[in-house]
Amino acid sequence: MNSSFHRDFFIGPMSKNVVDCVLTMNEKLDKKFGLIPSRRQIECSDLGGGYVEHWDTSRFMNRVGNTLVLRDHSGPMQGKASDDGRLSIESDIKSGLKFIHIDPWKCVKSIEEATQKTLELIRFCLSIDESCHFEVGTESAIFEYSAIDLSLFLKALKTRLSAREFETIVYAVVQSGTRVFEQRNVGVFCEASSREMCRIVHDFGLLSKEHNSDYLVNDEMLRRIECGVDSLNIAPEFGTLSSRVIVEELAKRDTSLLAAFEDLCHKSGKWRKWTNDTSITPRKAAILCGHYVFATHDFRLIKKEAGKCLDEAVDKKILANLTRISQVRTST
After folding, report:
1. Rounded mean pLDDT of 219-236?
2. Per the CB 3.0–4.6 Å rule, which of 141, 178, 222, 288 could disulfide with 187?
3. pLDDT band, residue 3 (cuts 50/70/90)
């Protein structure tokens, strides 16, 4: 297991506030947070950049300095447009982002097909820079697999990659029966499945990673850690947390600005990713998808009129949540 790439928690950079708060916490903590930008959040300039501050990959990497960054869900059909993912990957590596989650699972129908596409993309990355390292596998919302499937997948990778190539894999994704829906973690956590998948991953000399670890209390995180999960991904939780704070602050200060924010979020349609509720209220839409509009011109006008109170309140809440999460391991 390559411990230099290990972090207990990887945080999705849902906004500039989240990124800056992670950097602030990492200056204070011995145990650092990693960042996991998706292609929609942070993307190369040739593909239009991402929705987070419209940052392209190069600008994002310059901003975060020596923070460990793991590209989340890199691969075909993972960005804003239909593509094979290779232009994005090449830009990542040339921008200094060399820790990459290889995820072709949206475009496959079998473990064998996923294995072949994963092999191809790993070798593509290594052909650009031999120092790249990887996460493999995916979450159940994209492609559900069993412990047996995971074992077959990792065995095939180990058999068909050279020893040097296989050693570049750091993480494999384990699934435990839960996913994110609206503002909660749904499904039933399967302790037996989690333990078995973690055992398999560790038998291959890899670290285990669980996605969709949002909206969990500390005890729920500890249950996963006790099953052998080495790292947890937390992302949309920080988006809805930020949006909820903005709604609360605007409700106290200026209801016309609140109405404008809610309308902006509702019209964006971005809430459809997180709920099936087509009759959603503007308030609920704002909380579910507010982070998607933070970099828009219209929201910048709202924030300017509201004053510094919004950023201050959001940062305070994010830092408090990061502090809570950082204490999970130390409480064992």
Report:
1. 97
2. 178
3. confident
Nearest-angstrom CA–CA distance, 178 and 190: 8
Residue 61 identity: M
User: Can you tell me which residue has the tokens 């939780």?
Assistant: 237
Query: Contact, 70 vs 101, CB < 8 A?
Result: yes
Whole-number average pLDDT of the chain: 95
pLDDT digits 0-9 by tens, 160-188: 999 999 999 999 999 999 999 989 999 89
Residue 1: its pLDDT value, please?
A: 56
Alpha carbon distances (Å) from 112 to 109, 250, 328: 8, 51, 37
Of residues 330, 318, 316, 236, the one with CA closest to residue 31 = 330
Say if residues 328 and 225 touch (Cβ distance below 8 Å). Answer: yes
The DSSP string of 139-188 is -TTT----HHHHHHHHHHHHHHS-HHHHTTEEEEEE--SEEEETTEEEE-
pLDDT digits (tens, 9 = 90+) for 95-111: 999 999 999 999 999 99
N-terminal to C-terminal alpha carbon distance within the chain: 22
Structure tokens belonging to residue 301 = 């006008």
User: What letter would DSSP give residue 32?
Assistant: P
Least Cα distance to 232 among 283, 286, 178 occurs for 178
